[in-house]
Amino acid sequence: MLHRTLVLSITMAMTVFTGNAMAQGWAEYVNQEERFGINFPGDPVRGATSFELGGPAYPANIYRAEDSAGRYVLTVVNYEGATRDQVATIHDDAIEVMRGSGGDITYDEVAVYDGMETQMMQFTNADQSRRFVAIIHPPTSAGLHRLYIVEGYATAGLPIPGHFQQSLFIVDLEGAKIRYNTDIEGNKFRVVPSPDGGRTGGEPLLAPQCAPGLPCLAYE
Question: How far is CA 143 from CA 29, 183, 199, 200, 211, in A?
Fold first, then answer.
């Protein structure tokens, strides 16, 4: 992955919050407008911000919750309207922002999450509290124009809340979960559930419910 020296910052412009971040119990939270679902310990507090990546500042929403074990934050950056060159560097720019966001980096590796480009990171702070970060970028052909940054914070002595990051999923316009795969030529395609429960054995089949320009070429 290309690493570049960037002067980056996150400009926070928080607006009025709604919701209750301290509600009891974990539950699935789905936001159809932002095309995601994730587990939070109660309804998350939502705030608006701007997120600067390589120069341009993009609008973003931050979803926050916490419990006795730690804090849980999801930032959704909306880069609709970005140029092709800007989109091409957004994922790397976000990685550089997080690398400079504080704490000693103890893990920093490329991963794939439901077939989507992902960077996994862990940080340890001076007080021995820790932070787990996942930066997830759906394929541009999906038409989402969004970057998802998941952060879980744990106080000293408590485990990293990996279950929070692992619960994230992306949904289509009908609310169905999205998963991708890659063909032998490196092209992304969406994997759709087989109507016969998987007995097709993954035989390629065009599915009409895919977004324009994004082929669905395989069954689970």
Answer: 22, 19, 30, 28, 7
Give the single-character DSSP code of 88: H
Task: List, edge to edge, every strand of the sheet that includes 104-113.
Answer: 45-52, 57-67, 70-78, 146-154, 130-137, 116-124, 104-113
Identify which of 212, 121, 139 has the alpha carbon closest to the alpha carbon of residue 179: 139
Q: What is the pLDDT of residues 75-102, one digit of tens each?
A: 999 999 999 899 999 999 999 999 999 9
pLDDT, tens only, 109-132 = 999 888 888 999 999 999 999 999
- Decide: 144 and 138 in contact? Cβ < 8 Å: yes
Q: Could you give the 3-state DSSP secondary structure of residue 52?
A: strand
Would you say 21 and 65 are in contact if contact means Cβ atoms under 8 Å apart? yes
Q: The whole model's pTM is what?
A: 0.78
Domains of the chain by range and CATH?
A: 27-171 (3.40.1000.10), 183-220 (no CATH)
Please name the residues in contact with 28: beta carbons below 8 A apart, sequence gap of 6 or more: 37, 38, 39, 167
* DSSP β-bridge partners for residue 62: 47, 75
Cα(172)–Cα(31) distance, integer angstroms = 11
DSSP string, 108-167: EEEEEETTEEEEEEEEE-TTS-EEEEEEEE--GGG---EEEEEEEEE-TTSPP-HHHHHT
Pairing of strands 177-182, 188-192: antiparallel
What does the block give as tokens for 163? 């279950």
